[in-house]
UniProtKB/TrEMBL annotation:
UniProt keyword list: Hydrolase
Pfam families: 2-ph_phosp (PF04029)
Organism of derivation: Aurantimicrobium photophilum
Stored SUPFAM superfamilies: ComB-like
GO molecular function, one term: magnesium ion binding
Domain of life: Bacteria
InterPro entries for the chain: ComB-like (IPR005238), ComB-like_sf (IPR036702)
Protein name: Probable 2-phosphosulfolactate phosphatase
Length: 166
């Protein structure tokens, strides 16, 4: 499905990004559970010549700020595709992290959301005060050890702290 009228879209896993017939300006690979997790695939797996960022719950606002700054630099509307790292299950942790990114994007005017992005945004907006607890208690978090700082939405990070892979 071609969705060029949406500025911010979400999908699950690499297969989801390939299924959408869209060439985004920015792809954000979201792994809520680790700000330092390696990207488990090749960068050329993403559509076109998109900028590719890695985001987590920890740096969600900085990632959104990077995108807003990139849009200003480009002097045009950019299309953003947020890809949840876990395509196998409904990943609550990644959805909340994506929602945090989308919330910040919306605050900066990037608010033409696909239905999937709107749901992630609403989930984060309504559950913001419980998001860290929900991420820690999620099925995805049960078999890993999380550092305390991974469960903090760090609002002091800047665009310079964002992992830009391409």
């Amino acid at each position: 499905m071609n969705r060029p009228h949406y500025q911010v879209m979400c999908t699950w896993g690499l297969s989801g990004s390939q299924r959408l017939s869209v060439n985004p300006d920015v792809v954000i690979w979201v792994n809520a559970l680790s700000q330092s997790a390696p990207l488990p695939l090749q960068l050329d797996s993403f559509p076109g010549d998109s900028k590719v960022l890695v985001g987590s719950y920890f740096d969600a606002f900085a990632v959104a700020d990077w995108v807003a700054n990139y849009q200003l630099e480009q002097q045009r509307r950019v299309i953003v595709l947020i890809v949840y790292s876990d395509a196998e299950t409904h990943n609550v942790a990644d959805e909340l992290a994506a929602g945090a990114i989308i919330e910040r994007l919306a605050q900066q005017g990037l608010d033409a959301m696909s239905p999937e992005a709107a749901v992630a945004n609403a989930a984060f907006s309504q559950l913001r005060n419980a998001a860290a607890h929900l991420i820690a208690a999620s099925e995805q978090a049960q078999n890993i050890t999380l550092r305390d700082d991974e469960l903090v939405l760090n609002e002091s990070l800047t665009s310079a702290d964002v992992r830009v892979l391409r």
